[in-house]
Design goal:
This protein is 34% helix and 15% strand. The chain has 196 residues and is an alpha/beta fold. It has one domain: Spore Coat Polysaccharide Biosynthesis Protein SpsA, Chain A (Alpha-Beta Complex), CATH 3.90.550. The longest helix is centred in the first third of the chain and has 18 residues. The two termini are 24 Å apart.
Amino acid sequence: MIPVKSFHDAKERLAGVLSRAERQQLARSLAEGVISALASRVVCVVCDDDEVASWARHVGAGVVWAPGKGLNPAVATGVDHLKAQGFETVTIVHADLPSPERLTALPSTEGALLVPDRHGDGTNVLRIPTGVSFTFAYGPGSFARHEHEARRLGLEVIVVDDAELALDIDVPDDLVLAEARTRLWGPEGPHRSTPR
């Protein structure tokens, strides 16, 4: 499950280095990369924007409509929807991962799996069973809150520190690092490296 907000207002913290049109294209391109990396899985996009919903259907993803809810209630709505569809686990993935190729190689678990961002602050990937009443707390410091919530619920917790999945594009430094990695690994990206 991938929460995606309006492309029109995407990546505002990059306004100092990218135009609005460039930020829109970047957000769309990153989200398409994440969906492409998950092509072997059932993927749905949680959104409240008509353009995003149309785009998601065009790229083969399902859509969970969550208008005006904000990120955390929208994610909860998506999880409830997938639970009602019979899914026993859900993996919530940020849409702005420039190197998502190892998403399908994450270990399986009946508990909770978390991939923190490169600062150990945010939660780039979160997998939980749908049968628990998990309180989502995205935003600054979400990784610690999500880990605490999983333990509070008695779930086994696996934390995966993965340099590629830890990189998301929020601020200019992230963009510089992603571009540097592309130069290091070539235009096909880091999926050519050997998985750890």
